[in-house]
Write a structure and sequence with these properties.
Helix content is about 50%, strand content about 15%. It has eight helices and eight strands. The chain has helices spanning about 25-35, 40-50, 55-65, 70-80, 100-110, 125-135, 175-200, 210-225, and strands at about 10-15, 35-40, 90-95, 120-125, 135-140, 145-150, 170, 205. The protein is globular, with a radius of gyration of 19 Å. The strands form two sheets. Strands 2-3-1-4-8 form a five-stranded parallel sheet. A three-stranded antiparallel sheet has the order 6-5-7. The longest helix is centred in the last third of the chain and has 25 residues, at about 175-200. By secondary structure, it is α/β, with parallel strands linked by helices.
Length: about 230
Amino acid sequence: MDGAQVTATAPVFILLGPPGAGKGTQARMLQDAHGFVQLSTGDLLRAAVAAGTDAGEAAKAVMEAGGLVSDEIVIAILKDRLGDEDCGHGVILDGFPRTTGQAEALDELLADAGQHINAAISLEVDDAAMVARISGRFTCGNCGEGYHDVHKPTAVLGTCDKCGGTHMKRRADDNAETVAQRLTEYHKQTAPLIDYYEGKGVLQSLDAMGEIDAIATTLSGMVREAAG
């Protein structure tokens, strides 16, 4: 199906937020609750490459050469995906756009299909709390069960509650210094995007420091209202 044939009434939502804010988790919950399709840049690129589309082949060539996929290629891949039938119910963009240039290109793409951004929802978090939340994470190297130094420690130090394994792992980039740097870069990159969508009158904010289910309930109501 051609990208221009996207259902004109299909709502489009953007989730904004730094690493660890829960964008992916909340997008999946919205997908399950409302039948929307979650679209993330990474998944889009992998699917396009696997499908062998023109845009996918262009992305593959760039990635194999060790380069960064251009905005033009990403937009072309997004256009192809938005033309699929399942996107006719609505989509949630997770992690895209990241810059005002991408936001402007996205607006043009949607306008060509008779669509618009219904809401850009910023998941607001406390940076200091996020550093503590992410840097405290670790997993069982045997079964993959997730833990946290403060919020979910193992009952017996160094032993997995689920499988009894004793090999615990931490991501190399889940340390306080790296997390703080990622948050700083996010704010620098995203501040203009926040202003952009506020200027468009579609920006909404949500405190994302609470319980996942409570956040999901509030977010679901915001999406339902914005979808009309």
